[in-house]
Each structure stands twice: as C-alpha cells, then as structure tokens.
Specification:
The complex is a heterodimer of chains A (370) and B (280). With 370 residues, chain A is mainly alpha-helical. Chain A has helices at 2-28, 34-58, 66-81, 84-90, 103-111, 113-143, 148-166, 172-175, 191-208, 211-221, 223-228, 233-259, 269-282, 287-304, 306-310, 326-341, 360-369; strands at residues 181-182, 261-262, 312-313, 316-317. A two-stranded antiparallel ribbon of chain A has the order 1-2. In chain A, strand 3 (312-313) and strand 4 (316-317) form a beta hairpin. The longest helix of chain A has 31 residues, at 113-143. The two termini of chain A are 22 Å apart. Chain B folds into two domains: 1-99 and 196-280, P-loop containing nucleotide triphosphate hydrolases (Rossmann fold, 3-Layer(aba) Sandwich), CATH 3.40.50.300; 106-193, P-loop containing nucleotide triphosphate hydrolases (Rossmann fold), CATH 3.40.50.300. The two termini of chain B are 39 Å apart. Classes of the chains: A mainly alpha (370), B alpha/beta (280). Chains A and B meet through helix 9, helix 10, helix 11 and helix 12 of A and helix 3, helix 4 and helix 5 of B.
C-alpha cells in the first residue's frame, strides 16, 4: 500500500515540477524563443505519439494512418477559426471561401473576447477530433478486418489519399486547395499546449487502466484467447481505432496551432514515420516512453543539432562539412544507436511510477538474504 | 431426467476434402462431467472449436440450454465437395463469434496454454471478467463504474484463493510453473461465469501426482460452481476417475459412448485407442 502511495506522490511531484518549469519558461522567455517552440512542438507530438501507442502498442493494431487523422483535425481547426475579415485574404483564389463564420468570433460575441475566443478554439479542436473519429469509424469498417502489415499498408494508403483529396481544387472553397490556411488564432505560450495535451493524455491513461484498456491489452497479447474469453474483437478493435484517431485529430489541430499556417503537404507519410519512430524509441506500450521520446526527438532535431545545418556546432566552425541536412544525418545515427542499445525503447513497457520499483537483481538479492 | 445443457446435432466439419469431424452427435446434461477421448488427430479439438464458435461447422447444429446457437449447411464450393451426411437437412445459418458464445455461458481452456503473457496472474483472471461488465467505455474511463470494478476484483481474489494462486497473484502469468499456468487457465475460464466449462487436455504434460490433484480439483469446482464439464483428455486415470460418461472419437467419427466401465470393455475402443496391456 505504501508503495502505491509513494508512486502516486512521485508521479505527482514529477508532473508538478514539469508544469512549473513550463510556466517559468513562459514567463521568462519570449514566445518565439526556441525553448518555447520546442516545448510546444514536443507536446503536440507527445499527444499524437501516445494516441498512436494506444493503437499500435496497447491494442496491437499496426496502423500507419496517423497523418491522415491529424490532417483532418488540423484542417477542421484552421477552417473553423480563421477570422471572418481575414477570409477574403486567405481564400483569395476562391472568392473568400464557402464558410462565412468563425467559431471563436461567434463565442467571443457572447462570452467576451478572451474567454469566447478560447472556448471557440477548443471547440474547433474538438470538432477536428470528432471528424477524425467519424472517419476512423468509416475506414475501420473494411480496414480492421486486415491483420498486421496489411492493415499498415491500407491505413497508410488512406492517409495519402486523404491528403491528395484535400488538395483537390474543387474543395477549394473549404480547404483552400493546395494553398496555405493561415491567420487563425493560436496560443502563443507553451503552457496551454502542455495543459491541453496533458489532459488528453490523462484521459488516454485512464482508458488504458480501465477494463476496456485491459481488454485491448488482451487482444494484443493473444487474440484467440481474448475472443474465447468473451471479448468482441471487431467491437474493441474499432473502439481503439476510433479513440486513437480522435486524439490524433486533436493533436493535428494543435499542430496547426503550433505551425501558424498549414497546407496538406506536410501531412505526408513521413509525418507518420516520425511519430512511429518516437513511439518505438520511447517503448511500444509505454505512455511515459512516448512523451519522453517526443521531447528528446524534438529537442535534438529542432534545437541541439540545429548548428549542424548552419555550419557551426559546439564551437567547431566547419561550413564545408556542416551543411544543410547534415543534422538529419547525425540524428539518424543517434536513432540507430538508440535502437541498437535499447531494443525495447527507452522505457520498454514501463511507466513513470515503475521507476521506483526495485530492480530484479536487487529483489533476487533480498530473496537470497531471507 | 436432468436438463440438457449442450447438444451437438449431426455436426460435420470438413476442411477442403478432409472430414475432421464426421456427423458428431452428443448430449451433455446439467451437472455431468463428460469426456471426449480418442487417438491424436481424431478431431477432438476440432469438435471443441465447432462448439465454441472458432470454426463454423460445415453442416449441422449446436444447441445450448435448449436454444439453437449454431447452425450451418454446405455452401458455395462446399456444396460439391461435401462428403458428410444429412445434406440438405439444415437450411439456416447461425454463426456467432466465440465471444458471443462465451457470453451465453460457455468458457474454455486451451490445449497449448494461451495466457496473456504481459499480464499478471490477477489481471489474466480480471480480463476474463470484462465480458460481464455493464459499463461502457466512457463510464469505465472516467471511473463511474467503481462499484462494479470493486465487485469484480473481489470476485477475482476469491477465485484465485479457490484455485490456490492467490499468493502469486502479482507475478507475471508466464513466470508460473506449468501446472499452475494450467490452473490459471481454468481460473480464467471460471471468471467468465460459465455454466459449461470446456477443458482441452487440462492434464497435458502433468506428472501423475499433479494429474491426481487436478482430478480432485475438477470435481471440486464442478460442485462449487454448479458446473457442467466437458473435457478432452489423454490421461485415462483422470478420465475414468472423474467422468460420468465418455464419448470416443476416431477419424472424426463417434465410435462409442457410455460410462467409463462400458468404454473400458468396448472392443472397438480397445482396438482403436485404449489398446491391450502387454501382459494380457
């Protein structure tokens, strides 16, 4: 009993410290500072990585459709929140677009500017999540009958089709074709991102530790046994797929917020691979791992190794070697090393509180002592 | 006459041209322990898989508590290929997935142990309770089902005490010794609150002492949970010691049925399966 108490206190303390650090960073640094940018991007990636882990790591469904669901969330957010007076400029090739309203402005009308805008933005995020979930339901009907690699290929294909579809000119009045959507409101500080993603991840954690989460894990471990023990495979797989996509949609909306302007182009399969990489590095089946890996990955790729592209790194000035793209070379090597030495990822399938557990070696020693 | 729990009616299972189970008819009454025996490859496990919904029979029907739960007839390519009997007698198609059959009140164990490897002993049993949960995904996620969850956990603890695994409840399922893993499989099946328990070679790989313990254990849980037990087994000590009736399969066909004494003296069964002791 005391152990669980200890674990709770430990987890709460770590989370409180992280939140405090984030708030302090926000107060001390301007919002364009690289530290703030890294926190924002890493938080968004954490949420998407955790949502992918829910599906790939906890339910054992190898899906690669994350970019597609993020795209839906991002577009829903951007389309719904662009201020009305800026629509003419954004949709300049499509006569100001089809939508003549903006959700945050509607809410600002009767809730006041500050609160209303925030509520509208959150609502737009939610709409993105729901759209992604609906799409997941439809896609899931045929696709979830497939297993392992086939499922991966089908979902990957879906994401690519969706991207092409959103660039289609006929949809221009809504999606702006292949042009940028911009000028929508966004949180400039890092704290709202952290709080929002933190809440979402908390919900996912609650789900994973509920009876449904346990059923998901049973499906992952042994499908035949799970079905024989009364777990409806089709139903539970669909549920996991929809929930994962919902959070990927919200993550997509937050990514749109972070980027400030979006088009369909960055939502390529490369984005899914990036997320998959984070999940694998962090440990398949570990929420803590996914979050930790997101921060490490973004920190390395966006900040620490930046100098490699600019010709300067750790005080070494070598513009002949450190050229554009060299950062990715070094990053790849680091990732390979991590994968070689941590086969199960940084965290394996452990979570933050599990770090307090005594190691097997120690336990053995104690047992021998008795 | 006690109530009929399971009735398999003219069930034939054909894979391509191979008839694995040929026109199987059997009945199990409430409270009975019935064994299904036969040489390797006789179709015993296939019969189990038909009853539990893993395979859809090619022809025939299965009744559970007087209700028809499975029915099929040769369709498509099978129409031409079908070699069994009673062709054309069945017209309906009832093909529930295994989970639905489990919810009706049938639970099984597996010949080659299929526990959830990453889960603890406790969770293995708790997950089997999932099919009895009434909460939906929202109420479960936001912990509005505390009462039910607590009741389920209490029940699982009680079950683990009964099967003697309570002291290892926090170990990983796969770290248990073989005999205990078998017991855990039975505990898991019991957690699904079955009326009919199907055991597929529960004593496989056990030594004589463990087998004796298991024999007593099966009788115990039958009485405790008011179960009807249907089992496949090769250990004749267990089968003869515990069964009320025995069915014998050979090459997919039923060759005998009766009480243990009848089966032991049945010449066809002796020829096909039991054999004769060397000194006789």
């Amino acid at each position: 009993m005391t152990m669980t108490k200890k674990k709770t206190i430990f987890t709460a303390a770590v989370l409180a410290v992280l939140l405090a650090v984030c708030i302090v960073v926000d107060m001390l640094l301007p919002s364009y500072h690289i530290a703030v940018v890294v926190i924002k991007k890493a938080t968004v990636y954490s949420l998407v990585a955790v949502s992918m882990n829910l599906l790939n790591g906890f339910t054992g469904l190898f899906s690669l459709g994350q970019a597609g669901f993020m795209l839906l969330g991002a577009y829903a957010y951007a389309v719904l929140t662009i201020p009305v007076d800026k629509r003419a400029g954004v949709y300049q090739y499509f006569n100001g677009g089809a939508l003549k309203f903006s959700v945050p402005e509607i809410f600002a009308g009767f809730l006041g500017d500050r609160v209303g805008t925030t509520v509208g933005m959150l609502l737009a995020l939610l709409v993105g999540g729901i759209l992604a979930a609906l799409m997941a339901y439809l896609i899931g009907l045929p696709v979830l009958r497939l297993k392992s690699d086939y499922l991966a290929i089908a979902t990957l294909g879906f994401a690519e089709i969706l991207r092409a579809f959103f660039q289609w000119n006929a949809l221009g009045p809504i999606t702006n074709g292949s042009n940028l959507l911009k000028s929508y409101p966004a949180f400039s500080h890092a704290t709202p991102y952290v709080v929002l993603a933190g809440l979402m991840i908390a919900v996912i954690l609650l789900l994973i530790n509920s009876t449904y989460g346990r059923a998901f894990k049973a499906i992952r471990d042994d499908e035949v046994a799970a079905e024989a023990m009364g777990i409806n495979l089709a139903h539970h797989k669909r549920m996991a797929f929809i929930i994962s996509s919902f959070f990927a949609g919200i993550g997509g909306g937050m990514l749109a917020m972070y980027m400030g302007a979006i088009a369909a182009a960055p939502f390529k399969s490369a984005l899914t691979y990036e997320i998959l990489l984070i999940v694998v590095i962090g440990g398949i089946g570990s929420i803590t791992g996914s979050i930790l890996a997101s921060f490490l990955y973004i920190f390395f790729s966006e900040w620490l190794l930046r100098g490699l592209d600019a010709g300067k790194f750790l005080g070494i000035n070598a513009p002949a070697i450190f050229k554009n793209g060299f950062r990715m070379v070094v990053l790849s090597v680091i990732i390979m090393v991590i994968v070689l030495f941590f086969r199960k990822g940084i965290m394996g399938d452990k979570e933050l509180p599990d770090l307090l557990d005594r190691r097997p070696k120690q336990r053995k020693k104690e047992a021998a002592g008795k | 006459m006690s109530k009929n729990v399971l009735k398999v009616e003219n069930a034939t299972m054909q894979f391509g041209g191979v008839v694995a189970v040929d026109n199987l008819n059997l009945e199990i009454n409430e409270g009975e322990i019935v064994a299904l025996i036969g040489p390797n490859g006789a179709g015993k496990t296939t019969a189990f898989n038909v009853v539990t919904g893993v395979y859809q029979p090619t022809n025939g029907a299965v009744w559970f508590n007087g209700e028809k739960i499975i029915e099929n007839h040769p369709q498509g390519k099978m129409k031409k290929l079908y070699k069994g009997q009673h062709d054309g007698e069945y017209t309906g198609v009832l093909a529930p997935t295994p989970d639905k059959i489990t919810k009706l009140g049938m639970a099984r164990t597996f010949q080659n142990i299929r526990l959830w490897k990453s889960q603890t002993v406790f969770n293995n049993v708790l997950i089997a309770k999932h099919c009895r949960t009434t909460s939906n995904v929202f109420s479960a996620t936001f912990r509005m089902n505390r009462k039910e969850e607590a009741a389920q956990r209490a029940h699982v603890e009680e079950l683990l005490k009964i099967v003697g695994l309570y002291d290892v409840k926090d170990e990983l399922a796969t770290s248990l010794p073989y005999g205990k893993q078998r017991r855990l499989e039975i505990a898991r099946a019991l957690a699904a609150e079955p009326q009919l328990l199907l055991l597929d070679e529960p004593a496989a790989g056990m030594n004589p002492q463990e087998t004796d313990e298991l024999t007593a254990f099966i009788g115990e849980i039958r009485d405790k949970f008011n179960l009807t037990v249907f089992l496949i087994e090769h250990h004749m000590n267990l089968v003869m010691g515990i069964s009320d009736r025995i069915y014998v399969l050979d090459f997919g066909k039923l060759i005998a049925e009766g009480t243990p004494a009848e089966i032991q003296n049945n010449q066809r069964v002796i020829d096909a399966y039991l054999g004769v002791a060397d000194d006789a």
